[in-house]
Amino acid sequence: MLKWLSLSAVVVALDLYSKHLVTKAFEYAEHLPVTTFFDLVRYHNEGAAFSFLAGAGGWQRVFFSVIALIASVIIIRLMKLHPQKSLFCVGLALILGGALGNLYDRLTLGYVVDFLFFHYQEYYWPAFNVADSAICVGVALLILDSFRNKT
């Protein structure tokens, strides 16, 4: 269990440190083109994934914080119940770390700092951060684990 929580802690630390660097180096909405398809930016997301409910007037901050706390308790419980399932627990640990990283922003800033911005011509993917990346990789690992032979 400790190794899974340690992985979550590493995700939180990397997420918060990267967001700290971005907030010190960039003004809000500032872009730094890195390649023809990737920029470093500083955006603030008051909603959830893809700015879902970002303009909802403020109640969403409490709502998403409560969801993150409930999910964290469930994830920790699942890791305790299945510590021998490595791929499953790594996926959960990544999701937990990402959820806690974004929860910290939401509670301390009122929004989540996003800074990784991919685009192609006039098509743009919403900006995201290390926590979002960890959550996506964690979900992919859980899906992969669900297809593994359960014998």
From TrEMBL:
<dbReference type="GO" id="GO:0004190">
    <property type="term" value="F:aspartic-type endopeptidase activity"/>
</dbReference>
<dbReference type="GO" id="GO:0005886">
    <property type="term" value="C:plasma membrane"/>
</dbReference>
<feature type="active site">
    <location>
        <position position="114"/>
    </location>
</feature>
<comment type="function">
    <text>This protein specifically catalyzes the removal of signal peptides from prolipoproteins.</text>
</comment>
<protein>
    <recommendedName>
        <fullName>Lipoprotein signal peptidase</fullName>
        <ecNumber>3.4.23.36</ecNumber>
    </recommendedName>
</protein>
<keyword id="KW-0378">Hydrolase</keyword>
<comment type="similarity">
    <text>Belongs to the peptidase A8 family.</text>
</comment>
<dbReference type="Pfam" id="PF01252">
    <property type="entry name" value="Peptidase_A8"/>
</dbReference>
<feature type="transmembrane region" description="Helical">
    <location>
        <begin position="86"/>
        <end position="104"/>
    </location>
</feature>
<keyword id="KW-1003">Cell membrane</keyword>
<keyword id="KW-1133">Transmembrane helix</keyword>
<dbReference type="GO" id="GO:0006508">
    <property type="term" value="P:proteolysis"/>
</dbReference>
<keyword id="KW-0064">Aspartyl protease</keyword>
<keyword id="KW-0645">Protease</keyword>
<dbReference type="InterPro" id="IPR001872">
    <property type="entry name" value="Peptidase_A8"/>
</dbReference>
<feature type="transmembrane region" description="Helical">
    <location>
        <begin position="62"/>
        <end position="79"/>
    </location>
</feature>
<keyword id="KW-0472">Membrane</keyword>
<keyword id="KW-0812">Transmembrane</keyword>
<feature type="transmembrane region" description="Helical">
    <location>
        <begin position="124"/>
        <end position="144"/>
    </location>
</feature>
<feature type="active site">
    <location>
        <position position="132"/>
    </location>
</feature>
<comment type="pathway">
    <text>Protein modification; lipoprotein biosynthesis (signal peptide cleavage).</text>
</comment>
